[in-house]
Amino acid sequence: MSENIAIAAPDPSPLIRRVVELLPGLALLTAIGLGGKFIEQSIAAYGKAHHQPLPNIEYVLWAILIGLAISNTVGVPRLFRAGVATYEFWLKAGIVLLGVRFLLGDLVKVGGVTLGLVVIEILGSLLFMTLLGKAFGLKPKLISLLALGSSICGVSAIIAAKGAIEAEDEDAGYAMAAILALGALSLFIFPAIGHALGLSDHAYGLWAGLGVDNTAEATAAGALYSDTAGKYAVLAKTMRNATIGFVVLGYAIYWARQGQAGRVANKAAFLWQKFPKFVLGFLLISLLASLHVFTGPEVTSLANLSRWAFLLTFAGVGLSTDLRKIAQQGWRPFAVGAIGGAVIAALTLGLVVGADAWVGL
Amino acid sequence: MSQAPSVLNRLSTDWWAVLTAVVLAVLVGFDLLPPVGW
Lengths: 361, 38
Description:
The complex is a heterodimer of chains A (361) and B (38).
Chain A: H1 2-8, H2 14-49, H3 59-71, H4 78-84, H5 87-98, H6 104-135, H7 140-151, H8 154-165, H9 169-197, H10 201-211, H11 215-225, H12 227-242, H13 244-257, H14 267-274, H15 278-290, H16 296-319, H17 323-328, H18 332-359
Helix pairs in contact in A: 2-3, 2-4, 2-16, 3-16, 5-15, 5-16, 6-7, 6-12, 6-18, 7-8, 7-9, 8-9, 8-13, 9-11, 9-18, 10-11, 10-12, 10-18, 11-12, 11-16, 13-14
Chain B: H1 3-10, H2 13-29
């Protein structure tokens, strides 16, 4: 009896063991993020000291570039992988905390226009990607995955839809590779176009949130332009994410009717299962801020915590993007994704510029 | 007691993110965390 107790007692909690496993990767994310901040500040300080007007390149880009350099040369050692994979958690925690910078009244006002743009973007993207996929002769379920990934939220939508429409692993891999490659490209292309067109922070942020597919890259593309642009990019992207359950349900019903996927027994449970719960956290923090639960300095602290969470996210984006693996997936899904991405970027840019001229952003 | 770790183990990333952010908001709201700079 007593021997049994003595054997059972020393077992460490699996939760504690899991947390310890995350520490090396978390340290790497922090080091890369801080490295990005250091480079940004050093360049600014050098320009100031030597009276040279150097371009302000945000820490976001440096953090991503350092991460890309590591993952595509020496690779991320196994010891760090579990911690690096937490970047999605930091992204979501950062988005929830960012809720403190949106009062519910503003959210309703700005959100109305944004929601209209999101609906047009999703319908336009689904239609265009489906037609394009058919023109390129891609498999029907791969077309569904690419359409979902392009219209809503990149990798999360593809993962959510994969099980629901019973797609093959290979198709999901193709679709994710295309979305991730385009996300990496958009980090460089979106800010350049935004600056060339002289878009306001608000207009650019909405465009980045509507036009960039993966949430982490959309947040980064916004933050690369300005802090305010990053805020609006997150708002638009979060709204797109919130629609994921409805659109995936539509596809699940379609494939079930074709006899190529199981029936959805309980639609309400399906919607709740697919709904991104961090959106609820974002709304909760926004509600607390609207009720003036936090003082001014407390709002600043929470907004800064959100920035620190995003800093870890951006380091993780670079470390998790393996361009060699993406290249192995072949050119066809990438071509569909690239053409679709370019058309959707142009469509969403037109929408934002139109909305800016019509209602003033 | 034994239920708590198993519930935490089964939490999705989304719920972990919400839980963490809410805990941070409570800490900041009750001045249990020093001002956070950037």
